[in-house]
Amino acid sequence: MLEEKIHVIDHPLAQSILTSLRDKNTDQITFRKGVVKVGRLMGYEIIRSMTHEEVIVETPLGVKARGIRIPDLDSIVIVNILRAAMPLVEGLLKAFPLARQGVMAVQRIEEKEGIENIKAVKYFAKMPVIAQDNTVIIADPMLATGSTIIEAIKEVRKAGSPKRLLVTSIISCEYGIKRVLEYDRKIELFTLAVDKELNSKGYIVPGLGDAGDRSFG
Ligand code: URA
Question: Which atom of ligand 1 has the smallest separation from the CA of 198?
């Protein structure tokens, strides 16, 4: 795997929320609120990876103070994959309030047992125009087989050629990361954990279950 493309967020607050999300006893509301918090924290970690420029401002005391500006904050596009990504996007928007949004609906079809038989069928996609100086963030809470994210990458690439294409997933697994990076070497992944296994129904193990069902009941 291309380690330099994978950012595992080890912030203790993010990791303690992840633990609560994994816990089967966590109720629906706590789960959904936890995903929103993770989205915000992921946003802050993404900002850490952005370049900044030095600026000087004048304070109300008439004194100059050195600071920084992060130009890329003004040119973010978030891709919201219905429905599981909705709370993750809600959190990302707290870090990127100026972001424009693309929306996609993708259905997982399990034709028969076995991860190679799980397909992702896109039945709606609406992307904003994507410019060359944009940073695009695809939000999908679980990077499992990678099929949904590959569909999202296709839509982004149809809409333009962004400067950076990021994928945010709460939990990823090695199988899905490998497939997505084989499809597009330019993406960067921000995740809280890389789990080892994927079961025959395409669920990440140990994972956290079905992220959409757990957020929405
Ligand atoms: N989608 C989920 O919600 N959970 C998984 O484990 C895999 C895909």
Answer: 6
Reading the chain (217 residues) residue by residue, the pLDDT tens digits are 667 799 999 999 999 999 999 999 999 999 999 999 999 999 999 999 999 999 999 999 999 999 999 999 999 999 999 999 999 999 999 999 999 999 999 988 877 778 888 888 999 999 999 999 999 999 999 999 999 999 999 999 999 999 999 999 999 999 999 999 999 999 999 999 999 999 989 999 999 999 999 999 9
Q: What is the CATH number of the domain that holds 178?
A: 3.40.50.2020
**pTM: predicted TM-score of the whole model, two decimal places:** 0.95
Element (DSSP H or E) covering residue 122:
strand 118-126
Other CB atoms within 10 Å distance of the CB of residue 210: 13
The closest-lying atom of ligand 1 relative to the alpha carbon of residue 210 is: 3
Check: CB of residue 37 under 8 Å from CB of residue 95. Answer: no
Domain around 66: 2-216
Helices (DSSP H) in the chain: which residue ranges?
12-22, 28-48, 86-95, 147-159, 174-183, 211-216
CA of 205 to the centre of ligand 1 (A): 9
Pocket test for ligand 1, best of 203, 205, 214 (most atoms within 8 A of CB): 203
Q: How far is the CA of 201 from the centre of ligand 1 (A)?
A: 9
